[in-house]
Amino acid sequence: MSDQEIESLQGGCLCGQFRFTVDLDAKLKQEAQFCHCTMCRKMTNSQFWTCLSVPRQAFHVHDGCPPLKLYKSSDKAHRGFCTNCGSSLTWEPTDYPEYLDIGIGSLDHPEKVNVTSHLHVEGGMLPYDPTLPRFLRGPSGPQAP
Predict the structure, then answer these.
(1) Which residues span the domain enclosing 104?
(2) Are the beta carbons of 48 and 58 closer than 8 angstroms?
(3) Domain count, the chain
(4) Cα gap 41→8, rounded to integer Å
(5) What is the DSSP-derived secondary structure letter of residue 78?
(6) pTM
(7) Residue 28 sits in a domain of what CATH number?
């Protein structure tokens, strides 16, 4: 295992109080999913949560960070969030304690992760129209190419 190349992904919450590193095998594709379940939509106030499942042993909280507040959202999982700013950071399944999901929006460089699928679409997906105008910043600014 000493010849294994490791890719470290850094991330944290909005206020910066909670920071983490995820050390993953660089040879493997980092594949994330859009989760459309009701709980994820409510947690994010959005049409989906974009999550990456990682081995728990690969998730390292930086020294000096307070622990996440865990909320038991169902019999199957806890959700972790920053005690200061409330950023939702983790989904921790009780059936598979060796894994946890992190929100890729919390990563410093989410572009390093590939989104490969949609989950829990049985309740319907909110409409998404990729042909709508796209702006680099706000609607009064320049449009994106």
Answers:
(1) 6-119
(2) no
(3) 1
(4) 28
(5) E
(6) 0.85
(7) 2.170.150.70
